[in-house]
Amino acid sequence: MAGDAALAPFAASMMSLAADGRPVLVGGRRVADGRLSYPMPEDADAARYVPVELPRSGRLWSFTVQRFEPKPPYALAAEGPFRPYVVGYVELAGGLIVEARIEGVDPDLLEVGAALALDVLPVRTGDGREGLIPVFRPAAA
Amino acid sequence: MSDVHIVGAGIHPFGRHAARGPELGAHAVREALADAGLEWGQMQFAFGGSWESRGGEAVLSELGATGLPFVNVANGCATGATALMAACWAVASGACELGIVLGFDAHPRGAFNFDPALFALPAWYGETGLMLTTQFFAMKIRRYMHLHRISEHALALVAQKAFENGARAPHAWRRSPIALDQILNAPMVSDPLTKYMFCSPSEGGAALVVASARKMRALGLAGPRVRAVALRSREEGSFEVFAPSLDIKRSLAPTQLASKAAYEMAGLGPADMNVAQLQDTESGAEIRYVVLSFGLLHASVV
Questions:
Q1: Closest-CA residue in chain A for B143?
Q2: Contact (CB, 8 A) for B189 and B195
Q3: What is the distance between the alpha carbons of residues A41 and A13, in angstroms, rounded to a whole number?
Q4: CB-based contact B248 A95, cutoff 8 Å
Q5: pTM to 2 decimals?
Q6: In Å, what is the CA distance from B200 to each residue of B80, B133, B195, B280?
Q7: Distance (Å, rounded) from C-alpha B290 to C-alpha B259?
Q8: Which residue of B121, B128, B241 is the best one to mutate when testing the A interface, meaning the one whose CB has the most A CBs within 10 A?
Q9: Do B135 and A96 count as a contact with CB atoms less than 8 A apart?
Q10: d(Cα A14, Cα A42) in Å, to the nearest integer?
Q11: How many CB pairs under 8 A join A and B?
């Protein structure tokens, strides 16, 4: 995503940028039994988890299309009218299913099982906050 | 344990009304009391709740502050069922003999919007547009349709049946049948669910009067005995609303756990049932809940 390099993640617990600039999702591994979750738990729960970088690719587990503009706390601003977006759950090879926007797909042709890879999308809120959010796009063949 | 009976029932029609939420709840209570031929002052307790109408006890300004113990129940979509369970426990324990169970609300138009902090979720989950119940229901049924080869036609049949039932129910909001094609071809709200496959947030209320068997006979009343009431919460591995991540290994769903518990309590099975009422937030939920509570009680489904 050339041109977005100056942007930081929209929120620290949502996504990190690795040293090479690639996005990475950081989940938590529960110390007691190894159970994974995303994002890495915060506050009181954090002590029971250790952070773990999640795999960057996976397969579409389920999806839908957000057809109407959500009420607040949805805060993203659009150029012009609201544009529907695809939301999905992606099963990562490492043993967790994460929820994220899916970009670069036609929802009418999209199928459960599609191969996807992590990428970023620049977003801006109505009050002028900017940042990168993690999205999944079709994996290069 | 004493037997618990339902001796009165009342409902405020669902839809859009000029009345405030507590007035809808109070209307349902008055109807339930009238159904039983009882007075509000005879009630020894109440369990009830609302999400957007100042809890359950907001009805006291309408019905009279008699000093009765009013237990506010806040359990999301399960608030009414939870209130019934708690009331049955109160009566079965012998602590009380006669009381009210109540659920009501007046939701604003459109999909629910919640503060992520209420669910211990980070602010970005709401801000970036992932925290919608409509998305959850759509993705849940999409996964289910994929695994079990359920068609969009089946979703439309559920909605068509619901509108037909509504046409026969005086307290229903939607009272006109809608053709299958119209349901299927309506705009998508959250694919694969169209506008007519979703239940719109509305305004209404329902109430029951419950009594011990002894009190019921003493008052000269009659009513069905509660054979079982069960509630279960999610186990890890359950696919529930507002989840930024899911375990790959699925556990049994709360609906399955609660259904099994209720059948065991009642000494009955799915084949003994003649009628069912299910949460019908959308067409998908009904298909899943029929399977979870009647068909596959012991296998992980989604």
A1: A62
A2: yes
A3: 9
A4: yes
A5: 0.94
A6: 18, 12, 9, 10
A7: 11
A8: B128
A9: no
A10: 12
A11: 125
Q: Which residues contact B300 (CB under 8 A, 6 or more apart)?
A: B250, B251, B252, B253
Tens digits of residue pLDDT in A102-133 = 999 999 999 999 999 999 999 999 999 999 99
Q: What tokens were used for A127? A: 């009050």
Following DSSP, what letter does each residue of A40-71 receive, concatenated?
---GGGGGGEEEEEPPSEEEEEEEEEE-SPPP
Alpha-carbon distance B112 to nearest alpha carbon in chain A (angstroms): 8
User: Which are the contacts of A25, defined by CB distance < 8 A and separation ≥ 6?
Assistant: A15, A16, A38, A39, A53, A54, A56, A98, A118, A134
pLDDT at B1 over 60: no
Q: Which residues of A touch B189 (CB under 8 A)?
A: 67-68
Tell me the ipTM for this assembly: 0.95
Measured CA distances, A25 to A12, A89, B1 (Å): 10, 14, 53
From residue B178, how far is each of A4, A67, B128, B137 by CA, in Å? 49, 22, 35, 22
Q: Cβ contact (<8 Å) for B122 and A11? A: yes
Determine contact: A87 vs chain B, CB below 8 A. yes
Measured over the CA atoms of residue A17, residue A62, residue B246 and residue B50, the dihedral's sign is positive
